Amino acid sequence: MTEKVAVSRAAFVQYPFGRQLGEVGDREGQRKITDAMADLIESAEGPNTYVHLPYEWPEPPDKAKWRPDILAPMGLKRMREAEETRKAAAK
Q: Where are the chain's structural domains?
């Protein structure tokens, strides 16, 4: 998605949805991520510069809650549209 909309620079962290800067209250960890993001602004050699930051979520992947329990409105809309399309195709 980021590449499709041509964001000039982006830093990616493999953290759960809504926790891009880390765990609540982890000021040190959040500071490391924001510093790395700021460094990207200086170090990027031009547009379309994307980096994956080397930080890992502290929980094992199979225990981490990667998505919220409730879908965002656009996610619900897409689910409903897909269901309507399936029903129409089944007729």
A: 9-59+66-90
